[in-house]
Amino acid sequence: MPDSAIPHQPHTFALWREAQDTRVRTRLGGIYYLLAWLLSWLFSTAPSDMLLSGLLGTALFTLLLALRWLHRLPQEESDSCLRAWIDRHWSLILVTSLAWGLAHAWTLYSTQFEPSRLIATLSTVAFSTAMAFSFSMRKGRCILAMLFLYLPGLAALGLHWETQQALLITLAFYLSYLLLALSRSHREYQATLALEQELLYQRERFDQLSRTDNLTQLGNRLQFNTLFPVLVASAQRVGSPLSLVLLDIDFFKRINDEFGHALGDACLAAFAERMRATFRRDSDALLRLGGEEFAVLMVDTTLEQARELGEQFRQELSSHGLEVQGRHQPLTTSLGVGCFDSANDASSAAFFKRVDDALYRAKANGRDCLVLADLD
Ligand SMILES: Nc1nc2c(ncn2[C@@H]2O[C@H](COP(=O)(O)OP(=O)(O)OP(=O)(O)O)[C@@H](O)[C@H]2O)c(=O)[nH]1
């Protein structure tokens, strides 16, 4: 299963995992109910005398089996879809359990089933054991299913208390053991789920850290390399404008040389903070490409809109500089700005180069200016 298909919200993940587990564990179960019924019927005293009820039972368990198989997991992995799927699937499990419980009671009650009674009782024990160990995700529903499997048979045995008390007591005793086993297997399921969620969280956190620049908390070069081609491909497909702004601080080396590397670092962090204040849309991706070079990727943004924002950023920085470590630090930046053009840009790399060339020209023009990327 690709990582992208796994829901990342903890609650959705828990529902998704439960739905997957339920689906996998329920797939084979339905076959055994059908088999148990066929064996109980075919080994009864005279199966041909019960042709109609035998066939009706077979049809019922075949239908329930088919419904289980056909009930596929939802395509959409939202909380509500997953919850609805789980609820519907549990309805099938509960109906099947009740159907079998009643079939078992019938085999205990009717003398026609005398030769196959043991088959039916052993099947009930097997089904409820499987229930306790395999469907412990939902404790309450699992208990209900086990009671559906068991109680009709116990009631039928109760009607013949004189002769059946030993079997009834033994089955009731085993049921109490299963309820204890269910509690333990439910706790274990929850613990495994919590562990899986923790692992998922840690992996995401690690992934996030590996894509974040430590100094500025902007996305880093790795994040840019991942995001940029995806956004370009999407702009190409949808035809929406995608703008790229490249920023390079002017004469940054002098700041390091004059005031030290620590102040240089603080300048970079303050510069990133200023970027956040200007490029504020949730969809704007702010990145530090390395050293004193930054980028902003703006989806659904025309060249003119990107130019306006870039120019506003440049002017504010040029007029006010930055407040760094309690002192005023004059600072300017050069910018290259471009908008993806499918007729011009054969690839994301070609688009980047066009904007990078504009930045280069901004530097060559004397810095502290914005240059628009050329179109051929
Ligand atoms: N403090 C600090 N300095 C850095 C960091 N990364 C790169 N630099 C410095 O940034 C400076 C970049 O210098 P240059 O590439 O010559 O560019 P510039 O001085 O800004 O000149 P122009 O870009 O041409 O305007 C170098 O002195 C690097 O050491 C960093 O993380 N922290």
Automatic annotation (TrEMBL):
<keyword id="KW-0812">Transmembrane</keyword>
<dbReference type="Pfam" id="PF00990">
    <property type="entry name" value="GGDEF"/>
</dbReference>
<dbReference type="InterPro" id="IPR050469">
    <property type="entry name" value="Diguanylate_Cyclase"/>
</dbReference>
<dbReference type="InterPro" id="IPR029787">
    <property type="entry name" value="Nucleotide_cyclase"/>
</dbReference>
<dbReference type="InterPro" id="IPR043128">
    <property type="entry name" value="Rev_trsase/Diguanyl_cyclase"/>
</dbReference>
<feature type="transmembrane region" description="Helical">
    <location>
        <begin position="115"/>
        <end position="135"/>
    </location>
</feature>
<dbReference type="GO" id="GO:0005886">
    <property type="term" value="C:plasma membrane"/>
</dbReference>
<feature type="transmembrane region" description="Helical">
    <location>
        <begin position="165"/>
        <end position="182"/>
    </location>
</feature>
<dbReference type="GO" id="GO:0043709">
    <property type="term" value="P:cell adhesion involved in single-species biofilm formation"/>
</dbReference>
<dbReference type="GO" id="GO:1902201">
    <property type="term" value="P:negative regulation of bacterial-type flagellum-dependent cell motility"/>
</dbReference>
<keyword id="KW-0472">Membrane</keyword>
<feature type="transmembrane region" description="Helical">
    <location>
        <begin position="90"/>
        <end position="109"/>
    </location>
</feature>
<protein>
    <recommendedName>
        <fullName>diguanylate cyclase</fullName>
        <ecNumber>2.7.7.65</ecNumber>
    </recommendedName>
</protein>
<dbReference type="InterPro" id="IPR000160">
    <property type="entry name" value="GGDEF_dom"/>
</dbReference>
<feature type="domain" description="GGDEF">
    <location>
        <begin position="240"/>
        <end position="375"/>
    </location>
</feature>
<dbReference type="GO" id="GO:0052621">
    <property type="term" value="F:diguanylate cyclase activity"/>
</dbReference>
<feature type="transmembrane region" description="Helical">
    <location>
        <begin position="26"/>
        <end position="44"/>
    </location>
</feature>
<feature type="transmembrane region" description="Helical">
    <location>
        <begin position="142"/>
        <end position="159"/>
    </location>
</feature>
<feature type="transmembrane region" description="Helical">
    <location>
        <begin position="50"/>
        <end position="70"/>
    </location>
</feature>
<keyword id="KW-1133">Transmembrane helix</keyword>
